[in-house]
Structures
1.
Amino acid sequence: MQGIIFNALEEFVLENADMATWNAVIDKSQVASKGVYTSGVNYDDSEIVSLATQLCSELSIPLEDGLKLFGEFLFSFLMNNGPIELGQYDNAQTLLENLDSVVHRDVKRLHPDAYTPFFSYEPVDKETGKLTYFSRRKLCMVAEGLLKGAAKHYGQSVSLNHSKCMHQGADKCCWDIKFEQLNP
Ligand code: HEM
């Protein structure tokens, strides 16, 4: 997993808790990198899982809820600190249609050792569509948070029906999604 995601996690902890919590998470999860993460460098996937699990136990919140909250935070973090300019999209649907072919492809182009997830968005009409996700990391809860963060960024609401899940034995995660423009 790319260092920028760990930087985002640290920032998330500092905004929602404090430095003592982040230090406790690093100490207790005993990650190989000892909590020093550089943007652009790749770290073992297991570190993000250990840190997220430890963080949720420190904060006494279910892991699924923590991952969703982190995903929502991550979207604005990536928009502000990510390696890619994303000026050209008007709404979350257009961003989703270009997620693999433009956004994550650019991540891969800049960092060839990055492992980016697979997403495919099929619009049903202007507001609704079907999203498919696959990743060896099975971070569908982070994806849900990112979708929420994207909707917020574009002034939209989003409702998600997670109809298939890799954690329930499906080969991919699928959602029926509805985005609505708020105050159009
Ligand atoms: C709705 C929008 C987005 C969704 C649903 C999404 C989804 C995801 C997910 C689920 C991951 C976790 C890795 C995995 O599942 O294997 C991820 C990783 C990542 N995403 Fe996105 N993403 C979105 C937007 C963006 C944007 C706007 C940027 C950059 C400007 C970005 C850059 C990255 C990077 C750098 C990683 C780390 C890849 C790695 O560690 O190898 N994403 N994304």
2.
Amino acid sequence: MQEITREDVNILVQLQKAETETVRIESFLKKIENEKIGVEKELVTFRTALEEHKNALSQSETLCRETEAEIQMLGERVVRSNEKLRQVKTNKEYQALQREVDDNRKRKESLENSFMQILETKEANEAIVAEREAELAQLSEKIRADQAEIDKKGEDDRALLEQYRKQREEIGKNLDPSLYRQFNQISDASGGLAVVQVKERLCRGCFMSIPHQLYIEVQRCNSLILCPQCNRILYYAEPEENTVKAE
Ligand SMILES: [Zn+2]
């Protein structure tokens, strides 16, 4: 069994305090980093939707242009055919040309009828794109501000984290290297909680009830005692007599 002193235990408890703060701040910084990614996602989704609206607008613009060009072309064709009609010699020729005029006119009328609809769609798409672009500008601004605020929230903690990391290292220097290594291993394996108090005979790491003999050894503080269940370093602290309970 590894021998330790009361002093070692005190150092371990100090080390754990710095470790707990380090882990807490690291987890907080990770959380706010995810928050930043989360708000960025909102922007990406909005941009994707805007791109779809822009595609729809571009399609309706093309359709509008093509329909207009076709209407104009059919109109010119009708005019030309009408001119030719005046010059035809045979009845057969006349009928054929007349049919062509009728067909072109019908097609033109039909296109003119649908053109209003096409134009309305195009204008509606233009309005949507303009509106969404304005919204995107606002959203981008809001998200940049949100992210800056999130960054600011983390600023103090990043500085504090550095402090605790240094503190942890300094405290560690006072420990026997093998004990320090052991602390680090247990901490890595136990979510940053390597040293726990035994209070009312319970391990405060896993809440297992500590066997009587082991409890006495923890109180004696002569050797390194690990919790049989969670494998954390156990220590005993005298109940503070002067503690005044609230209420
Ligand atoms: Zn335990």
3.
Amino acid sequence: MLDCGTGGHALGEDLMSAGVKGWRGHILISHTHWDHIQGIPFFAPLFVPGNEWDIYGPKGLGQSLREVLAGQMDYAYFPVTLDQCGANIRYHDLVEGTFEIDDIKVSTRYLNHPALTLGYRLEADGVTVVYACDHEPYSNILADGEGEISGQDLQHARFITGADLLIHDAQYTGEEYPAKAGWGHSTLEYAVKLSKEAQVKRLALTHHDPSRDDDALDRLVASTKAKLRKNASPLEVFAAREGHALGLAHAHSKHFPGCVEGDFEAQTLVDDALTDLSVVIGIADVKTGAALFQAVQAEGIHAKFCSDADAARKLIAEDRPSLAILEHDPPSIDGLETCRAIRQQDKDPEHSMPVVIVASEQDQARGISAGVTDWLIKPFSSAYARTKVRAWALRSACKATRRLTPERQELRFGQRSLPVEPPRLRPKRAQGARRPTPPTGTENGRFSNGAISTEKAALLWMYCREVAPFETPSFRKKIGQLIAHATNTPAEM
Ligand SMILES: [Zn+2]
Ligand SMILES: [Zn+2]
């Protein structure tokens, strides 16, 4: 998450100091795990009438981003609902692709985490910043910083290519990783290796392990810097910390090209394509097969199951599913050979179906030659399996939507009004004009008069008393400001 305390807030402060009436900001959320969204109910600028906010996050297959965020402010958890935030808030459900926020080009890419998670690449004025948390190496051989970068890790490296600043997950060390595999987080060594290969300039290590104290973190950073110096690497590494501000000046003479496959508008409605999704599962092991079948069904996707390679190949040829999940555990089932055979009979390699291989370990070289798209390594959690299915299903839906001609897209989507105005449709700022003018009017009527009442403020105060053991001076100050905003705006109620 480019969280409430950093990107969006800084932009808001910038506008405030420039005398622009009302705060205007954008919040990019990587995913909705609690550690990435629990600041939202306490983020005072969302409560101020007249403020304008855009919140972006990954599109799911069920609930919208707004519904998920509203869930944590449900009556059972919090006294103020999301609908009662005073600001005008627009929600943007994103898929993989690109979009624009004023003159900033934003690219998104799914990360490897047990929840659907987006990394963000921001490019403006010749400077590139990439945020990639929470993310785990696709191939565990890279966890200690050794080995060849290939497959989905290579795609991830392309996504971060040439970043002036990369803010990357580095929760564990290579030594700690074997006990944490499947938890959805990177190692410091992986973040450094990919940064070096991808010619990243500065690397901010973050998502620090809560059990590591500051001194231990400093020692890790110092030893990493020493190794980089020894290898004459120009990569600059530091540990991100609260309140750290960085200035980025355009220094690269070399231009790094775009990094996202295709140029898909990340806010495109793909719901029509989602209804056509289907998955073929070819798994010999009964327990693994049942777990995957459940994972696909939990995502609301139609699945066909078989337990041998020949049946899987036949089903795939007949059904042309959106995704194939095949086990590789010879001699009982040879997923790699099945994948190779599928690729040979594929008449449309341009839009070839993703094939995920389920195995006890990755054989990256054989996988590449057989045309494997991705791996799911056993044992896996249900959350990991669901996320893998969800990511590839959404990618297939995007491909299907992209294949529609503009005329057919109009036919399918023409009658439907977009939930929000895509930022790319807004007029672009003139060159050199750094500050956007806040939009006028209420683009989302629900929030136009949504300032919280004095009763709600009293409830909020009581709630804050309840969480007093966690109180800090800055927390107390923020809550004070929040209540002041709420109680000083009777005209808006
Ligand atoms: Zn997470
Ligand atoms: Zn996290």
